[in-house]
Amino acid sequence: MPKAKGKNRRHKYSYNLNRKRLYRSARRRAAPRIACSHIRHAWDPHKSVAQNLAEMGLAEDPNKAVPIPRKLLGMEVESDGQQLGKKIVRKPYVVNEMELEASLPEKKSNTLSRDLIDYVRYMIQNHGENYKEMARDEKNYYQDTPKQIKRKINVYKNFYPEEYKNFIASLKPEKMEVQ
Q1: Closest by alpha carbon to 167, among 112, 131, 115, 117?
Q2: Where are the domains of the chain?
Q3: CA–CA distance from 91 to each of 34, 54, 55, 84, 96 (Å)?
Q4: How far apart are CA 136 and CA 119, in angstroms?
Q5: 140 to each of 71, 123, 145, 160, 162, how far by Cα in Å?
Q6: GO BP, one example (predicted)?
Q7: Is 143 helix (H, G, I), strand (E, B) or coil?
């Protein structure tokens, strides 16, 4: 198979190309990646990071915003006593929205897969508390050991305690009818 044409040619370095200028312009155009949507909407791309954060009432440097008192030889060193003039907060709604969002209770998103729930219910329904029997069951596709099955059942109990109690309560009448 012949070689591709032009691949053996030597690559020449272009001395006339100003790579620094190209790199700077590409870097300047890139906007900062902002995770918080409230800050992202209030951000002005024509201003610096420090100016944007000052307008929102946020600190650029947390060490300067809340200084830590230094202790030397058991004595506190006092600051100059000159406090920086208070900056005008032009966008206070950003901080207010962030505080409101932080005060909301966290959603509990812990759930189990439907397959695992069905698996646990099947095992409890057919074998009760006998984990060794559960390990030998044909529905034990992943060949879980008795301890692994017990752990899965305990996870189900912790995630859905009311549902588990109702399920166990519904099983008791069935077992009485069988006997």
Answers
A1: 117
A2: 24-67+86-103, 114-171
A3: 17, 9, 6, 20, 10
A4: 14
A5: 64, 9, 9, 22, 25
A6: ribosomal large subunit biogenesis
A7: coil
Enter the tokens of residue 171.
Answer: 């099983």
What's the CA gap between 92 and 85, in Å, rounded? Answer: 18
Coil, helix or strand for 71? strand
Amino acid at 113: S
Q: Which single residue is written with the structure tokens 């899965």?
A: 152
pTM over 0.85: no
Structure tokens at 86: 């208070």
